[in-house]
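Entry 14. Ran structure prediction on the chain below.
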Amino acid sequence: MSAETLRQQLEALSKAAREGQAGAGECAMVGPKMLQAGIRWRVMEPGFLKMYIPLAKNAPAAAAQSALVVDDQIGIRAIVRRILEGRGFAVTEAASGEEALSLLDRRKDSFALLITDMLMTGMTGRDLADRVRFRHPETRILFISGFTDDPSVQSGILPTHAAFLPKPFHPDQLVDAVAKLMA
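Output, structure tokens:
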């Protein structure tokens, strides 16, 4: 969707909301194009429209899938959570490999995606990934790290259905890496 088309669609929907007429008809007219662009909205009350606009551009919305994000930095977990939730993932966070394994022990099904920092206090991301893969071989794994000294990263040798994304990364880079892994 072009920027001008998006502007026109938003203008039409917000005008209808201001006039208290943003109902099924307006949503049916404007909705498909905005949904295709990844934009969601809710009419809170007449005159007020709440918009949910994705952080990343040109990325298809993910199906409702689960992701486990493991990083010892709360800020990184929060950013990754926000990006993934914007793409339709149900996200669970853990601050360590040990916490992640404990969450897995209490969970009935597997996570579709594991995003883990390579270097954390205690268990490394690689060790965590190996343990998760032993239990759930279908889980896709995205390693993230600001340090690329790990031999598997330097050599480019990663487990099957795994990828590496260096920190810092742009939201679009994370979305692209996840889309490739989940394809």
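The chain has two domains: 3-52, 66-182. Will compare against last week's run tomorrow.
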